[in-house]
Amino acid sequence: MKIRVAKSAGFCFGVKRAIDLALKTASGRNNVYMLGDIVHNEDVVRLIQKAGIKKIRALTSGKNRLLLMRAHGAGQKVFRHALALGYKILDATCPMVKEIHRIAKDMEAKDYRIIIVGDKNHEEVQGIVGQLKQGPIVIPDKGRLPLTAVKKTKKACVVVQSTQNLQKSLYIFKTLKKYIPDLRFYNTICRPTRLKQKEIRRMPKENDVMIIIGSKESANTRRLYEISKSLNEKSHWINAAKDIKKEWFRGADSVGVSAGASTPDITIQKVIAYLKR
Q1: I need a surface site. Which of 25, 34, 145, 174 has the fewest CB within 10 A?
Q2: Any idea where the domains of the chain sit in the sequence?
Q3: 124 is catalytic
Q4: CATH code for 96-189?
Q5: Residue from 42, 99, 123, 124 carrying the catalytic annotation
Q6: pLDDT tens, position by position, 63-107
Q7: Taking the alpha carbons of 4, 254, 241, 211 in that order, is the dihedral positive or negative?
């Protein structure tokens, strides 16, 4: 059985940068704290905890504490609140997410209503919302268009969560154009996501079985799986090698492997080693 691994599988630039920054900062210190998880992956979370970074659910006194802002980013209120409590801040927000913040703020300053294509409850989207003075319109998918709010909008700017499905985002934009006279669109899906999605639209057609590796909490991994499943019914989403079932490969001549942006290389290598065995 041939094993074909996607070139784009695993860490993206923003995730690798955030983890490297976290580990370097934690070295020799015991006062580094983080609000939530740095990324959506259990193996990475354990690595961060082992390095001595303490996860907190709410901000308390920040005296002599360093707060690490995770890759997904956060709203301006979180930054202000942390500084007011005495924290020193190390911002590990992905630069591509920072660019979405900049576009959204700039366009709002020009009186455009901001429309975000993304998962309302995802930390990245909440961070984008937290940059704005007025509440934006958040559209999670093409089947849930808030027409009442959209029809009242005459001037709007669309930005996209960095790990969204490009085809769905473009469909939403074309639909919005029917209702909003002055509509700007910024394709803020990051380059690593575009490369992953380009490969995952090809690989399921070329392989008998597809394995997608990543946490069930990972939005970008879920989208890779959804695209793969739509093209090849024999697509399976796993978190680690232990989740693999041998019966998936009966009669298979080839298996394609891809992984989400927060999946460490060691996890991918363990899956490949298991498949080889």
Answers
A1: 174
A2: 2-10+192-276, 13-94, 96-189
A3: yes
A4: 3.40.1010.20
A5: 124
A6: 999 999 999 999 999 999 999 999 999 999 999 999 999 999 999
A7: positive
